[in-house]
TrEMBL record:
Protein name according to UniProt: AB hydrolase-1 domain-containing protein
Domain (AB hydrolase-1): residue spans on this chain: 9-74
Molecular-function annotations in GO: catalytic activity
Family matches, as SUPFAM superfamilies: alpha/beta-Hydrolases
Lineage: Bacteria, Bacillati, Actinomycetota, Actinomycetes, Streptosporangiales
Matching InterPro entries: AB_hydrolase_1, AB_hydrolase_fold, Sec-Metab_Biosynth_Hydrolase
Pfam families cross-referenced by the UniProt entry: Abhydrolase_6 (PF12697)
Species, as recorded: Planotetraspora silvatica
Amino acid sequence: MTITEQPVVVLVHGAFAESASWNRVIQRLHGRGLSAVAVANPLRSVEGDAAYVRDVIAGLGRPVVLVGHSYGGVTERALTDGLTVGEPGWRAKPSWFVHGDRDLNIPAAALRFMAERAGSRGTRELAGASHAVGASQPEAVAAAVFDAVGHVHD
């Protein structure tokens, strides 16, 4: 796969973070030759934030693998819902999940349910990990991203 065919990983942060929260994940992606950009999610409204991310993606001019954390995942899903016809984006687009079993923001049982409902192609539940898995467990998050990138043409 050439660099122009390879997708760009677009990372969208949650409500109580900012784009630098993805730095450790991006270091690992870049270290293995994968292009990645962390979007500065404006955090104004789900629809407005999804429109902003859509515009960033349009400016890239390449396929993307979209990665969302917490509220960033809500933004991502609103974006994919707008791109699919007939069913929600979380059903139409392939999904991977990484979450901690010690997440105090979203219970692990709820995260498991969401992953199963979305038909996750790969779920990593990290023992002892908190809500901020991108910052605390960048290797696991990067591994899930590499797995997703490997399935782009499926």
